[in-house]
Specification:
The chain is α/β, with parallel strands linked by helices. It has 15 helices and eleven strands.
Length: 334
């Protein structure tokens, strides 16, 4: 009789987490051969994908956001698709549309033609250059992993992730993303300029006769297994309390910190706590640890919270920044 491994066995869980850590190290090495000088950005994007979520990359053009998404599609073995968001883009250009076809016998019927959203890794490039109507076309796909069209429900492939890039809202021709859609992104990742050494290495590596190419280090099936394993990692009471204290403390209605009560118009909902819980688990595995810590909560507080809260008018007039409020919340955790 063949013995079946007990999925609740802690020794088995430890072995699986350690094996996943080895595979993820290969993933980071593969990405690092193509992407230079953005270790924090790469880490946070990998955390998002391991958590099963979507990520919003914010930064000025030319910082390699598009290159990062293309590289991750190759390295993670995902079928990718790209949509360039423009002011005249329509929801059907993303989701698909129904066309009327006539058969040889004269009978007519509608057929659904799938849009680019039917992939495993969707790059929504410059998402805030499209109108709010088109932006919101992704809401159901991001939350429910399906598309409803003309009364029919079409499931999306698994895994399914949206990696959206956004230009700073101060730039011309941009539309702010609706709050409901921002909340669907697990993390908001700021992409900044690389340091001098990284930019020098990038110049030497990308302007010669041969350029480094991304290579697959994981498959879609292995990624799904990794996402399921992340959810099985235990979280200690101290970490759970820190997550709840951080998220609940960021709501003006229930906050005890003066900085929150005075400066925020609204705060994060329960989805922020869910995102932080999953992201802390994923960060621990990426760092080769078997359980998350309060340090993970502090490290991920800003990318999880900053797109889920808003300053009130008086705070903006006084020059207060969201980063200042989040720093006060992190400091309150001790």
């Amino acid at each position: 009789m063949v013995e079946v491994a007990d999925p609740t066995d802690p020794n088995l869980l430890v072995a699986e987490v350690e094996a996943l850590g080895v595979r993820l190290a290969r993933v980071r090495q593969a990405v690092g051969r193509v992407i230079f000088g953005q270790p924090d950005v790469v880490e946070q994007v990998l955390i998002t994908i391991l958590s099963g979520g979507h990520v919003l990359l914010v930064g000025v053009p030319g910082l390699g956001k598009t290159k990062l998404v293309e590289t991750l599609g190759t390295v993670l073995g995902l079928a990718e698709s790209r949509v360039q968001f423009t002011p005249d883009l329509m929801p059907a250009d993303i989701l698909g549309s129904e066309v009327l076809e006539e058969a040889g016998d004269g009978k007519r019927a509608f057929r659904f033609i799938k849009g680019p959203v039917f992939c495993q890794l969707l790059m929504a490039d410059e998402i805030n250059r499209a109108s709010p109507r088109t932006q919101s076309a992704l809401l159901q796909a991001m939350q429910e992993r399906k598309v409803a069209m003309a009364g029919q429900v079409h499931p999306l492939p698994a895994p399914f992730h949206v990696l959206a890039t956004q230009n700073p809202i101060e730039q011309e021709g941009t539309y702010p993303l609706p709050e409901a859609q921002l909340d669907r992104f697990l993390l908001e990742v700021e992409v900044t300029y690389p340091d001098a050494a990284a930019e020098r290495a990038m110049l030497l590596a990308t302007t010669g006769a041969a350029e480094a190419k991304a290579e697959a280090a994981l498959t879609a099936a292995e990624l799904l297994s990794a996402q399921a394993l992340i959810r099985r990692i235990p979280v200690g009471e101290q970490v759970l309390d820190a997550i709840l204290a951080l998220v609940r403390g960021a709501r003006p209605e229930t906050a005890t910190l003066p900085a929150v009560r005075q400066h925020l118009a609204w705060g994060p909902g329960p989805r922020a706590a869910q995102a932080l819980m999953l992201a802390c688990r994923a960060r621990a595995v990426l760092d080769g640890r078997l359980a998350p810590s309060v340090e993970d909560v502090i490290a991920l507080a800003e990318p999880v919270l900053r797109h889920r809260m808003a300053l009130n008018f008086s705070a903006r007039a006084d020059g207060v920044k969201l980063a200042d409020v989040i720093d006060a919340l992190k400091a309150s955790l001790g």
